[in-house]
Amino acid sequence: MIFNSIQFIIFLPIVVILYYLLPFKYRWILLLAASYYFYLCWNVNYIVLLLSSTIIDYVCAIMMDLYHNKRKKLLFLWISAFSNFGMLFTFKYYNFFIDSINYSLNFFSIGSPIPFIEVLLPVGISFYIFQTFSYVVDVYQGNQKAEKHFGYFALYVTYFPQLVAGPIERYTSLAPQLQTKHTLEYKNLANGLRLVLFGLFIKMVIADNLCLYVDRFYKDPALFNSLTAWKIMILYSFQIYSDFHGYSTVAIGSALMMGVHLMDNFRTPYLSKSIGEFWQRWHISLSTWFRDYLYLPLGGNKVRYSRWAFNIFIVFAVSGLWHGANWTFVIWGCLYGILYIVEKKINTIIHWNSKQHTSNLINGFLVLKNFLLVSLIWVLFRSQNLSQAKTVFLGLINPNKIGDAIILEWQIVILFSIFLLLDYILYNTRFDIWIETKPSFVRWFIYGILILSVIAFTGTENFPFIYFQF
User: Fold this and answer.
1) Is 182:261 a contact under the CB 8 Å cutoff?
2) What angle do CA 128, 126, 137 make, to 5 degrees?
3) Is the same domain home to 169 and 210?
4) What percent of the chain has pLDDT above 90?
5) Do 149 and 194 share a structural domain?
6) Which domain holds residue 204?
7) What pLDDT digit, counting tens, does each position of 19-57 carry?
């Protein structure tokens, strides 16, 4: 069941209505059952891993609470880490590492190849493992008491609006809200519906239509001319943004209809003036997770410069690997690490944030520079392998390359322009917050455009969200 499906459009209001009709003491049961049903709709077998991760971390956290001995607490932390990341490695990374080993064995003519295993990547495994493991670490560090109620903890792990692609929520933020008696409030319901509508618009109208052009190009990038390569590079930047931003917006809106506030995952990232600012505005829940559970434990910025640079590089490299078992993702992350380190060094020489560098011209240049850098790196993210990425990059740097062209339909250009305008207007705010300040006729005019666009420009095929593969 995906957000942009008829099943979910029916499922969500049923859950919300039952949620407010049921007595408070039964609501957690409804949400837990709805969440497991939501996940079961993907694949019945996936539920085994989800339950395993939930049970292991529930038990490990309770055992850590029972012992004051640091060594025993550390033992259960390692049990949790080994179990969770062992599952993640088996289902997501085993074949990737075996493929790399086999390549090395073949290169040096050593031994025989190691066999692969045939497994399907469970939807959302990277997200819910990061979420539940953060809870275990918090208990280990003494920042969180272990949850004794298994049902409450299971609901925290599986809460359906953010189960398969985030936002990755901390226990202290999400769990108390799921255990709070929420009353039906017009503002929450209205704002939730607004976010769901806006999220479906940017996913189904913008992302899915851009996907048609991007997929056509990436079937064989060598066929197209240089101008088309640049055009598709930019379009993919907005495809992945509107796709993931659309998912997160629907997730936030769905939860808000039940009185639950999820963290914002995006804040107009393409208006960032630096790589550092971009990662403060893009996939915020993942960025803050890596900050708190990898970067700071490595020493953060309270170390000598060489160690700090190493920490930054490791964090971005691991972030790339988190996204997928492919060298394209690893290099994608490493490039961000290098750019971040270089950028920080340059900023010690040129203080862009000083008063003499705050003109609109300078700010515009920095935004454009940053967007082009990010778009270039997205080529690695979208490419199926390094060979395809090389083909795209060669097409970008060869202005004389002759080939086919891809022309955008005028309707898509208009809708894309509306999205860009809205994204600019929503700088440092959110659609529901912005639109509720507008006069009634303006609100309904915008609702009408969004609804008609979803009806008119949605194809017969439901494209899955890009981040579901991670």
Assistant:
1) no
2) 60
3) no
4) 72
5) no
6) 187-273+352-469
7) 999 999 999 999 999 999 999 998 888 999 999 999 999
Residue 219 and residue 125 in one domain: no
Beta-carbon contacts of residue 372 (< 8 Å; ≥ 6 apart): none
- Let me know whether 434 and 459 are in one domain: yes
Residue after which a domain boundary falls, among 116, 151, 184: 184
The residues annotated with a catalytic role in the active site are 323
